[in-house]
Design a protein that fits this description.
The protein is of the alpha/beta class and 363 residues long. 47% of the residues lie in helices and 9% in strands. The protein contains 13 helices and 7 strands. The strands form 2 sheets. It has a 5-stranded parallel beta sheet, with helices on both faces. A two-stranded parallel ribbon has the order 1-2.
Amino acid sequence: MRLATTVEYYGYDEEIYGIYRAYAGVPRKILSDEELTVENIIAGYPYGQDGELAENSMTDSDDTRLEFLQDHDSFMIQTYLGARERKLRLSDYVLSKENNGQIHYFIGVDDSISHDSIQTNEREYLTQKLEGQGTLFEGTDELGIMALARLYTEERNVSVPIYLKYYGEGQDSISDAYHADSLSGVVEKHIESLNATIMPTTYNAKVHFYVLTSPLDSTKKEKYVEELIQDYQRNISAHIPTIIVDASGSDYGSLFYGRLIEETELGFMLGYSSWNTCIGLSQGLCRYIYLTGNFNRSEEADRAFVQSLTFSFIKDIAYQKKTKSSLDSYYSRVLGLNVNNFYANRTKPLPNVVQTLLEEKMA
């Protein structure tokens, strides 16, 4: 249920992605109560709040995009709206089936926007349909790993008590330009969906979950980072399991991850992500349940966890610092490796030039 098509879909580039996003971002008429039906939502797709065609409601700054849409409306708009209709009807069909509590659904909308849009009625309708049998999420990237993590918590019948703490004071703001919910809303929904419990204090909490937000006050960046680093160092000394997520985008530059790498013990961490709260959370909770469970541990599983955590650091930091394309090019063209499955390359030694490339691009 993305707001706009994925880049490279049908060969579309980022410019066309922007056109679709602007078109979808035009507010539609908000439906409520008995008006909120699949048929009414679909019927309202082409029109803005004023009843005019949505492309005619685009702002003056979208003149070029508007002209493009008008020239290609027979394909561009109808194909786009047709895809939305199919996804909505499919979701409605599945959620309308009786599952006797045997299936828990995760549905992601991804690529959202903070104001009313073509997604608004869809989101409200699906949220109502999901009541008692699933959750609607802002993103889709994390749904696979989160579904596996939830299955694991159910299999082990464990609800982990978590102490949640934010650094940066930006948790009540919209996560980023591609979300409609606050960061705190997104994080708490993830925790709840993984059958974990947020504790009001550190007392009785088994895992600490630290989230670095965008700085509410940019003059306090060093203070926010210092607080998180100190808390994590204390947890290492006290042997308190810890998950860390940097949800700030690139607002801190290398200030945070530089200190994290140089001044702390990364291997103590249960989970980490530089952009997605649920990736770090899912990884960390499953690792905690595994370590504290009454079953045999294996060297193979321990090694896999270290590989996964290391991969999270390298991949996420590179992603945030916009170095992914450079690394992908070097991996595939020079080393002949598979950039879509790094684990397939794990037996092949990588030359020091990879580290040099990372350091140059992230400087």
